């Protein structure tokens, strides 16, 4: 690669710092607006005006604008200064989430916040890279060098590894939205049938109780709707009543008219059958109530989504935002390449217009990769911040973004040439350990807080189940009247 090209006309640290501060604000506001919209229930408006889906889309636009602003700022100030200022995004984002969303910052995560912030500052102070602009040929060389290829492979492994983890995880432990809860709890057909049944019955409450009794009876006896209807019609008809009497007496009509002895036998047999029916009814009465309660509990358990284990949440809380940060880091490097190509084309005054190489193949490559990166960021944003709080996930995301961006600068754009001396390399290693340690600390704090919330929810569910069982046990007489 040739010598790094600089342009004094675009070098202005004050403008660069101002743009990065604006990017910090866009990151924080866009991120909070997206999660605020995702937390709205069905029918609720975002700021009393926007639909929740439109609100999320507006938040995504604000969020993505920060990347563009940051890429533009790279033309006006060195990376060392901008990285130090851009690390304030962690503080701004946590403050915005605390004020707007009410997210609580876990106390265990505070050292992690400080560690990530300190690592970003140490990186910015150690790597004193100039504002370089690469031509098309130089970009092709630096982005396909052996070190760059290794970097791209590692980033692809992180991103696609996250996808392979997230896909089965979301299938097994989906997040139930308000629309899904409505569909599961009260299906539309069931609601329509309930309305029709209430209108047909003179007493809606008795109709509901009778339906519950009938369902419980069918569950025990194994009767289908067709069998139950046929038996009911047969019993209600005059001939059916007579036939039922003769059947239970185990005697035909002809035998009853011919002999008196057979009549007495029939009477005795009928009495025994009646007693057996009464005993059977008494024996089935208590199981009916128990079976119906168990059926209701099984149906309720079937509609509840599975909950992930603590270890699964720990892995997801690290993999989701890390994959998002890695995807954004690749996008930031692509934006830096686009910015550099734009700058060199606009400032190349010595080359005749008919001899300018516009590098169409490079633009096509940037476009294709950019579309993939854009779609990946959108998907990871929805998955990450619909499941995890901003105060827990954002430090991991931003830590990965900062670390991967600096490593990408070393591997792709050869910023390592500006790290001179053992002291500078010691600072780079120290900053790397601070960022990685901060990510691990915040991830553990997030997992610990999530585990505590799960335990509280489990205790609340147990208390609610105990209260429901106590309420059911307090009404045995009413259940017996219904079965009678």
From TrEMBL:
Residue spans crossing the bilayer: 15-33, 54-73, 79-101, 108-129, 149-167, 313-335, 362-381, 393-413, 425-444
Superkingdom of the source species: Eukaryota
Keyword Transmembrane helix tagged: yes
UniProt xrefs under InterPro entries: EmrE-like, Mg_trans_NIPA
Membrane topology: Multi-pass membrane protein
One Gene Ontology molecular-function label: magnesium ion transmembrane transporter activity
Subcellular location field: Membrane
Compositionally biased residues, Basic and acidic residues: 188-201, 475-484
Protein name from the UniProt record: Magnesium transporter
